[in-house]
Specification:
heterodimer; A: mainly alpha; 3 helices; elongated; B: mainly alpha; about 65% helix; flat
């Protein structure tokens, strides 16, 4: 299948926009987390699209590393959400204002 | 009075554990597959311990996997290693290696090792479609790759520490 690069970049932009919207609108920590992942993968998609356009492998390799780092981030992030839920009995980010000045 | 022999009992128990349960076609196939894959890697001396660990870990049949891993026995090894070196050379340089007098001994030793480690994972499962990405990943980007693995390890430890329930009388 030969998807033209502009469509790939367009899809990537749409996904990124949805991610931004999710982080701004939703207050549930897990949904916000998923939105952050959506933005991350939109960036991955753009990288792969451009790497294919240039017939260059480095972009694809870079996506590999982004996925690896994202896995680490998800592990720590979910652990933090679990820890917050244990102490606050809520994952609503408005309740977690302990560090507010 | 039944004669009780702890040594014999222990050996029988170890054998049962090694076989990991009743033998079904699927388990036999999995054991042979993992044995062949490990056996064709150029890590001589590490096949058996690796097989043991993997089979005990995944509950596979260790005895059958060990037999399959002996594909690298002295009779088959030359053909197997030649195939691995040639596949590695093909992946890296785009052509098979010409085995003639032109290759110096030191040159051959260093080149063969590199080609072999590249070719073995391909020959093992006879699988190489994302070969180009894998080759770049494991040649130019080995250091970032290893750093990523370290990062994942640290993240895993961090996640476990964060989600651990503290024991009674233990401060968080």
């Amino acid at each position: 299948v030969n998807v033209p690069t502009p469509s790939l970049v367009g899809l990537s932009a749409v996904l990124f926009g949805l991610g931004v919207l999710g982080v701004l609108v939703r207050r549930n920590a897990i949904v916000m987390f998923m939105s952050v992942e959506l933005m991350l993968n939109a960036a991955n998609l753009a990288l792969i699209g451009f790497a294919r356009q240039r017939a260059d492998l480095d972009g694809q390799i870079f996506v590999f590393f982004i996925i690896g780092v994202a896995a680490a981030e998800v592990a720590v992030g979910l652990a933090l959400i679990v820890a917050i839920f244990r102490t606050k009995h809520s994952i609503d980010v408005d309740q977690v204002s302990g560090l507010k000045g | 009075v039944a004669r009780f022999s702890p040594l014999k009992e222990e050996a029988r128990r170890a054998w049962r554990e090694l076989r990991g349960g009743a033998l079904s076609p699927a388990r036999a196939a999995a054991a042979v597959a993992i044995g062949l894959f490990i056996g064709s890697q150029p890590i001589f001396g590490c096949h058996t311990p690796l097989i043991l660990v993997l089979c005990l870990w995944f509950g596979l049949d260790g005895a059958i996997a060990w037999i399959a891993s002996n594909v690298s026995n002295p009779f088959f090894a030359p053909a197997l290693l030649t195939a691995e070196v040639q596949v590695g050379a093909y992946l890296r340089t785009g052509s098979l290696l010409r085995l003639d007098q032109e290759i110096g001994r030191a040159d051959a030793l260093s080149k063969f090792a590199g080609f072999m480690f590249l070719g073995a994972p391909v020959v093992g499962p006879a699988f190489g479609s994302p070969a180009a990405v894998g080759e770049v990943l494991f040649s130019d980007y080995v250091l970032p790759f290893e750093v990523t693995s370290l990062l994942l390890l640290v993240a895993m430890v961090g996640a476990i520490v964060l989600t651990r329930r503290p024991k009674e009388g233990e401060a968080r």
